[in-house]
Amino acid sequence: MQPISLYIHFPWCIKKCPYCDFNSHAVKGSFPENQYISALLRDLQNDIEHFLLDRPVQSIFLGGGTPSLFSPKALERLFIGIRQRIPVKSNAEITLEANPGTFESQKFAEYREIGINRLSIGIQSFNDKFLQKLGRVHSAEEALRAGEIAHQAGFDNFNLDLMFGLPGSSASDSEYDIKTAISIEPKHLSFYQLTLEPNTYFYKHPPKLPADDRIFKFQQNGQKYLQKAGYDQYEISAFAKDNFQCRHNLNYWQFGDYLGIGAGAHGKITLSRPEQIIRTNKPKHPEQYLKDPEKGAHRNVLVAELALEFMMNHLRLKTGFSIDDFITTTGLPFSNIEAKLGKLIQQDLIIKKAQYYQCSERGWNFLDDILEYFVLDN
């Protein structure tokens, strides 16, 4: 059996950002740190027993919310409990999402000591004006300091999150953010457009964004700067130095299996192909989750949905996918998608390069149109 990944959701943050549609809740005073760690371990144990899992974990991702609100001592207890329940590979990638406003030198050195070997730092911008518009709790100075602390704490592998297309921003603003991020020397950069998602404050009260053609120009310019600085674009919004692609996210995009524990976490487990590919989800509200973390639901992905789910993930990757990738991960015959791929090639939305099918340069900008081909007729 192939290794799996483990996603762990931490639902608390200092403040809910107006653009955020993740399952996050602003901390009001204290939060039940130890109780939540206990709930996570109960949740994990239940999944292992339910799915009879003994597959080794290849990556762990602590996301949120703001996982860096949790103390190193609490996370150490969590890691010990995980290893007592399921094998973890000795070279597993273990990522902690962190808010620059929570960075302290000693704290992050301790994170490194307990086995966290990768950070993902939510910068978004290095301009105080835009950070305020985005409702971020950190300043530009704290963003720069976070990169410095990450290096000092021994993290030679960390990601910086950057947004473009911010309210009132110009090409020079976006260029400044990119150049500043590059100067910090992260091994990985996530560079993505601000989108107004349903159920967010910005969706209900939309800020005035730059015109679409200008936003597209911001994106193109940023991609050029990153490529020139040695960051390879391997996914729609992900850029990395050689051998520093995010292994955890690659597993998602390759339609791999992963456990999801924590409030509102989702998972995917393959028991047999194509009939028993299972999606899981856990109670969303922290109070509900703490009360009964084993109460999560799961459903079999319909065989008719598999081609779309596969494409939604694999086509995010520059490398695309091979015929063998499709057959191995879905259990479906290639004839299931062959004719549709042929039509997309004729429209110059998909290209075939060696044995791989991948988005053309044009196709990357019309991915939703490509996916429409694989949506069920009904």
| N-to-C CA distance | 35 Å
CATH third-level topology of the largest domain: pyruvate-formate lyase- activating enzyme
- The CATH class of the largest domain is identified as Alpha Beta
Q: By helix and strand content, what is the structural category?
A: alpha/beta
Number of helices: 15
> How are strands sequenced across the largest beta sheet?
9-10-8-7-6-5-4-1-11
Shape: globular
Helix content: 25-40%
Total number of strands:
17
Mean pLDDT: 95
CATH architecture of the largest domain: Alpha-Beta Horseshoe
- Number of spatially distinct domains: 2
Low-pLDDT runs of 5+ residues are none
Please outline the major beta sheet: 9 strands, mixed
> What is the beta-strand fraction?
15-25%
Q: In CATH, what is the homologous superfamily of the largest domain?
A: tm_1862 like domain
* Rg on CA atoms, Å: 21 Å
Supply database-style keywords:
2 domains; 9-stranded mixed β-sheet; globular; Arc Repressor Mutant, subunit A; alpha/beta; pyruvate-formate lyase- activating enzyme
